[in-house]
Task: structure prediction
Amino acid sequence: MRPLNDIETAIAAVVPEPSPQAGADALLRLSEEVIEHWIVAREEEPTSDKREGFRLLALHRQGAKGDPSFNACRETCREIAYHYNLVHMQPGHTEITNRLEMMKMISSHLYLFISGKMQVAELGEFCCSAKPIRTSTEFDYGTPKEA
Amino acid sequence: MTTKDKYKKVAYYPGCALEGSGHSYNRSTKAVGKALGLDLVEVTNWNCCGAMEVKNVDPKLQTYLSSRVMSTAANEMDMDVVMAPCNGCYHNLKKAEYDLGHDPESVDVVDKLSKKAGHKTYESGQVETIHALDWIKDAIGEEGLAERVKNSLSGIKVANYYGCMYTRPRHIFPEKDQGPGSESTSKPHFMDDLLAAAGAENVEFPLKTACCGGAHTLSDSDMSTKLVLNILKTAKLAGADVIATECPTCHSGLEMHQIRAEKVLGESVDIKILYFTQLLGMALGLKPKKVGVHENISDSISFLREKGLA
Result:
């Protein structure tokens, strides 16, 4: 697993040559590495399982366990998988270079979100999750007037 | 009563942002409602939904604050539907509704605080909370909208950006993901549907619900700028001229960080940012000023002139 900062450079360096498919393979692996960082930082072993054929989706699920705000990147991961499929399943498509470029942008977003979250764990917490309903509270709600 | 009829007159909860940074969203929502013959009755003496600050201090206090808005609509205004155009307000009211339907402790806290404040306690299910997208989609529909279009948005390529709170977390939106006709939490499409009905060409935009770092825009501006810049560049790569928004927080974040990206990172992305209600309003024949285009931070007038909308 390379240092997190190196992943940003590696994503930017992906090009359609020698083949867009090789580029998509590299981006998928880099995206997996980004989530591995998150999981290792939580002192867990990154899973080698797959979901719907993608380790990336299994890693995302593992990363979101106990931290629903991590779901803020769920669709980003699914879009990476979708673009990976587009590049691999339609190798002769006229838009293939654009599709790989789009996969790069989505992988960059995953990197930016997770590297941000590594610095500020609460990123995504307000917007994307309902915090677990508290079972107890220290707040004094007071006594009703008529009581 | 059908949903279509029910949504013709709704309690309108603009929320704080629409009275401040999102003023043009407020103006354009009201203008579109009027143009479509829909009745908005503003919730009387409304309060903050609890937004991010209160929710972080105590989620149950946020549940109470949102419940008070719904209680006013139900018990004092006799309304069945509350429409909140802001994703934050919409999300918080939906979350309160969920909590009150599933957590007895929340019910107890809301009851105590409501009695203390001297108003009727909101009971789960008294009102239905909807977003501005549901409102237009269900009250008017794509066909109805297409019939009313005076200035088609044809020739405008749009990336629809929904932000995060419109679909997350999934469990507070039980009406979504119910098959054909319902909204999707993984790939929302209501804004796409409405703008397409008005003639726009929607582009395939993979970051439509991606994080923009909105909540950290003050505490870590660089992170937000990088996330927004990536969203802008992706929309541009997808071929869009415009990013359509449906949330004041997303909209302000995109506009402000578009400028900041140029200043701080030296990267400029030539893409316009407009509320979907502004685009719909102009399609319905309203002048840009009528839908508050002049109140946006970024200047879209020359682009709108080029497209025959101004």
Observations:
- Residues 4-128 of chain A form one domain.
- The CA atoms of residues 21 and 87 of chain A lie 6 Å apart.
